[in-house]
Amino acid sequence: xxxxxxxxxxxxxxxxxxxxxxxxxxxxxxxxxxxxxxxxxxxxxxxxxxxxxxxxxxxxxxxxxxxxxxxxxxxxxxxxxxxxxxxxxxxxxxxxxxxxxxxxxxxxxxxxxxxxxxxxxxxxxxxxxxxxxxxxxxxxxxxxxxxxxxxxxxxxxxxxxxxxxxxxxxxxxxxxxxxxxxxxxxxxxxxxxxxxxxxxxxxxxxxxxxxxxxxxxxxxxxxxxxxxxxxxxxxxxxxxxxxxxxxxxxxxxxxxxxxxxxxxxxxxxxxxxxxxxxxxxxxxxxxxxxxxxxxxxxxxxxxxxxxxxxxxxxxxxxxxxxxxxxxxxxxxxxxxxxxxxxxxxxxxxxxxxxxxxxxxxxxxxxxxxxxxxxxxxxxxxxxxxxxxxxxxxxxxxxxxxxxxxxxxxxxxxxxxxxxxxxxxxxxxxxxxxxxxxxxxxxxxxxxxxxxxxxxxxxxxxxxxxxxxxxxxxxxxxxxxxxxxxxxxxxxxxxxxxxxxxxxxxxxxxxxxxxxxxxxxxxxxxxxxxxxxxxxxxxxxxxxxxxxxxxxxxxxxxxxxxxxxxxxxxxxxxxxxxxxxxxxxxxxxxxxxxxxxxxxxxxxxxxxxxxxxxxxxxxxxxxxxxxxxx
Length: 629
Ligand code: ADP
Description:
The chain has helices at residues 2-77, 79-84, 87-94, 101-116, 151-157, 199-207, 239-248, 306-432, 436-464, 476-494, 513-530, 563-568, 586-596, 623-628; strands at residues 120-125, 130-133, 162-167, 174-184, 187-196, 211-215, 221-224, 261-266, 271-276, 284-292, 297-304, 472-475, 497-501, 508-511, 538-546, 549-555, 600-605, 611-620. It is α+β, with helices and mostly antiparallel strands. It folds into four domains: 12-75 and 309-347, no CATH class; 78-197, PAS domain (Beta-Lactamase, 2-Layer Sandwich), CATH 3.30.450.20; 405-465; 470-629, Heat Shock Protein 90 (2-Layer Sandwich), CATH 3.30.565. The longest helix has 127 residues, at 306-432. Mean pLDDT is 85; it is low at 1-19. The structure holds adenosine-5'-diphosphate.
C-alpha cells in the first residue's frame, strides 16, 4: 500500500520534470550549435591573429638574415677594385704571355682567395678570356674560359662595377660575382672578378623552422634552404627577363618552373599567407619580405602556418571546453532549479489539496449544521404542532369527558329522579289512605334522594368552578389537621386508627388551603371506603421532604388498587363502587387540583398491602419569612 503510494508520488514528481527536461535538451543542443558556429567563425580570425603574431616574431629573423646577406655582399663588393690596383695584375694583362709572371699571379690570386675567404678570384682580359684564376690548380679551373657573356664582365669592361649572381657554368655552384675594371693608364686592359658562394647561409637557415627564399628581380628563387626550390620561379616572369637569363646563361633554363602557390595578404604589416599546392609539401606559410636593393634581391622568410593553426585550434578547444564546462554547470544549476521548482509546486499542490479538502469538510460541516438547524426547527415546529394537537386533543378529550359525564349524569340523576317520582306517588297514595307513617317514610326517602343529587351537583360544581382560594404558601400540617377535623365524625364512626406522623415544625408548601384540604379529605374518604368491613381499619398519614419537595402520604390497609384501578383511578367517573356510592370523580378532581399547584398525585400499592397515595408539592418559605425578605 505504502509502496504504491510512494511509487505514485515519484511518478507524479517525475512527470513535470521530464517535460522540462525535454525543454532543456534542445536548449543545450542550441547552445552547442551556437558554440560550434562561434568556433567556426572565430577560427579564421584566431588563425590570422596567431599568424600575424608569428610574423611579428619572425620579422627580426628576416631583418637579421638581410643584414647578414648584405654584410657578406658588402664585404665582397670592395674586393675587385682593390685587387684591380695590383701592379702584378696590370703587368700580366699587358704581357699575358709572360710565363714567369703568370704562375706568380695565379698563386697570388689563390692566396688572396684563401685569405679573404672567397670562392674565386680571377682576372680576365679585355675579351673576357680568363688568364689567371685562384682555381688554376683545380679541375674546375677558370683559366682559359671566356666570360664575356656575363653582365659583370660587360659592366666592368665598360668601366663600372659589375655585380651578378648566377649558377657557375664551370663550377656548377651558385655564386655572386663582383667585378672591377683594371685600368692601365687610360686604357681598360681587363677585369678582376671575385666570386663568393652563399651556400653557408643556406646551411644556417636550414637549421631553423623558417624557410628563407631569396628571389631576384625576375622572381627566380636564387637562394633558399629548400634545395628543391632553387631556380624555381615564384611569381610571374617577364618575357625579357627570360631572354636575359638565356643570354647571360644565368640559370639552367630547364629548372625555371613556377612554384604553384596561392598568396593572400595577411594584416597590414606586409605579411602574406602562401599555400604551396605541391605533392610533397602542400604547406601554408606566413611570408614577409625585405629588400637588398644593391643586389636587386627580395629576401622572404616563410614561417610555417601550422603552429598558428594549432594554436588557434588549441585556443578554440580550450574556449570550447570552458564554454562546455560553463554550459554543464548552467545545465546542472538549471536542473536543480527545475527540481526545486517541482518540489515547491508539489508542496503548493499538496497545500492546495489540503485547503480544498478543508474547504470541502467545512462545507460539509456547514451543510450538516444547516441540516441540523433545519431539523431542530422542524422539531420545534413539530413540537408546537404536537402541542397544538395535544391542546386540541385535550379539548376534544374534555368534550368527550363532557359527553361521558352527561351520560353518567343523566344515569345518576335519572335513577333518583325516578325513585323520587315513585316515592312521591307512593306518599300521595299513603296520604289519601290516611297512612301518614308510610307517607312520611316515603317523603324521607325523597329527601334522601334529593340530598344525593345535591351531592352530585356539588361535586360537579367543584369540578367546574374556578378555584376561589389563592395559590400560595400554606402550612401543610394545619391543612391536614383541618381535613382530619372535617373527617372526624366518619373516622370515629368507622373506629379507624389514625397514625399521624407529621413533623412538629411548620412545613410550608405551595397550594390552595381549601382545595388541598379537599384533596386530603377525599384521600381519607377513599381509604375508609376501601377498608369498609374491616374490624380494625387503619390510616397512616406521613410527611417527608425530598429534593426540595414535600411528600404527603396517605396509606390504608385495605385491598389496595386492582390492575384496572391502577391504570384508571384518576380518570373521571372511574369507580369500582356500587351505584349511588361513588361517582368516580374524587381522584380525578384531586389529581387536577394537585397539578394546578405544580404538584403530583400518584397511586400505588404498598409492599405490605393496602393503597398508598402520595401528594407531592413544592416546598416554600413561610409567608413572614418571604415578607422579611
Ligand atoms: P369513588 O370514590 O367515587 O369511586 P374515586 O375517584 O375517589 O371515586 O375513586 C375511584 C376508584 O379508585 C374507586 O372506586 C376505587 O376503586 C379506587 N380507590 C380509590 N381509593 C382507594 C383506596 N384507598 N383503596 C382501594 N381502592 C381505591
